[in-house]
Amino acid sequence: MVDHEVDTSAGTAVVDADTVDRWGADGVLARVRAGAGELTGALRRVAEHVLSDPEAAARATIVELAERSGTSPATITRFCRAMGFDGYADLRLGIASETGRARSAGWTVDIGREIQPGDPLERVLDQIMAADTRAMHDTATLLDLAEVERAAVAIAGASRVNIFGASGSALVGEEMQFSLHRIGVAAWAWSDVHEGLASAALLGVGDVALGISHTGQTRETIEMLAEAGSRGATTVALTGFPRSPLAELADIVLVTASQATTFRPDALSARHPQLVVLDLLYIAVAQRTHDRAHAAFRRTAQAVDGHKAAKRLSGNPGASEAESSRRSGKAEIGPDTDVVSGPISNAAGRRLGPPQPTRGFPTASEGAAS
User: Fold this and answer.
1) For residue 289, which of 29, 48, 172, 264 sits 20 to 30 Å off, Cα-Cα?
2) Rounded Cα distance, 339 and 97, in Å
3) Which residues pair with 162 in a beta bridge?
4) Could you tell me which of 187, 180, 227, 233 has the C-alpha nearest to residue 206?
5) Is 304 helix (H, G, I), strand (E, B) or coil?
6) What Å distances lie between residue 35 and 6, 9, 31, 257, CA to CA?
7) Is residue 253 helix, strand or coil?
8) Is the same domain home to 181 and 92?
9) Which residues of 169-283 form beta strands (DSSP E)?
10) Where residue 208 sits, what CATH number does that domain have?
11) Tens digit of pLDDT for each residue in 15-58?
12) Do 225 and 235 form a contact (C-beta atoms < 8 A)?
């Protein structure tokens, strides 16, 4: 079948040479997933067909792939070039190598299969785990660590950090805001566009604004990040589409992948990869503000430790005495620990709990736990 559609994206590579070099041989399918959103018409159909059954695509000739996707060999060639490949042979070899590695790693679940109403939970769990594993792997492949480094340096030296996001992205932003606060970084998370714009207008040179949107097309997030950038703040975008409007206006772009499943479209399935990238960014900031971060985390941990101890000692008649003893200094705070390092005892000296030192920096998700 020969397609007669005019595809405006056919003449332009949606994946640049630097990105191709960074992804290398491990990022073939990640490259296709990331670039598919920029394609239209016949080229988009080719991308969807390749992603729906990569192993079959790797076995197919260029004519067979064209027939199965309802396009033409010429369109397949244009698709390969748009994805940064020299030709179909390179694409086919790359897909075959990557699917072979996936099988060796144990990713045997068909993540393209729809979850059915009658599927047992064991099958659903396997499907979700396989999809998330693939999304994490693709995110690690897509992520430019030099961009993470730039973002970490900017945040570490910022006097103020604003985080913008709507709906599910707002939840991810709040997680990051809380984590940064725990290590002494002045950060605020905004989901309301009016409040966010007002806060963005007060930013300036030396401040940082982080916009989170999987599609990169959420208007409110784009407006807030644009306002921050117009005031001189360094802007960072966390998105699944490196050529999206949000990414285009940002100084620094952090790219994530997603793997949609039934009842979990891309925007929802992107949450775990987003949290992983933000965990990495948070740790990178903590590394660059080591002494300040350690001191801040120790102080914040101590501030809430009494409430945690009260929960552990609930119902014990010696609880108040033990708490008083701890606060009076009988429980030692070690120089390399973030919480009380001595055992908690009641008034009679009976040990009620083991020491629980926390060394190093917790991840953003661990820091949010209470």
Assistant:
1) 172
2) 48
3) 188, 209
4) 233
5) helix
6) 18, 11, 6, 11
7) strand
8) no
9) 187-190, 208-212, 234-239, 252-255
10) 3.40.50.10490
11) 444 544 444 444 678 778 777 777 888 998 998 888 888 888 88
12) yes
Rounded Cα gap, residues 15 and 31, in angstroms: 7
Closest CA to 175 of 32, 46, 271: 271
E strand intervals along 285-358: 344-345, 351-353
- Assess whether 215 and 271 both reside in one domain: yes
Per residue in 244-279, pLDDT (tens digit) is 999 999 999 999 987 655 565 556 678 889 999 999
Last residue of one domain, picked from the residues 259, 288, 317: 288
Residue 237 backbone dihedrals phi, psi, to 5 degrees: -115, 130
For the CA atoms of 9, 11, 17, 18, the dihedral, rounded to the nearest 10 degrees, stands at -40
CA-based nearest residue to 250, from 220, 208, 281? 208
Classify residue 330 by its DSSP letter.
I
- pLDDT, residue 25, reads 44
Element of type H or E holding 161: strand 161-165
Question: How is residue 361 written in tokens?
Answer: 């920096």
Tokens of 134: 């693939």
Task: Please return the burial class of 67, using the count of CB atoms within 10 Å of its CB with bins 0-12, 13-18 and 19+.
Answer: middle
**Domain span holding position 2:** 1-106
Q: Is 170 helix (H, G, I), strand (E, B) or coil?
A: helix
Nearest Cα to Cα of residue 329 among 317, 313, 340: 340
35/39 Cα distance (integer angstroms) = 7
Phi/psi of residue 317, each to 5°? -65, -20
For residue 152, the one-letter residue type is A
Buried-state track 275-298, b at ≥16 Cβ within 10 A, e below 16: bbbbbbbbbbbbeebeeebbebbb
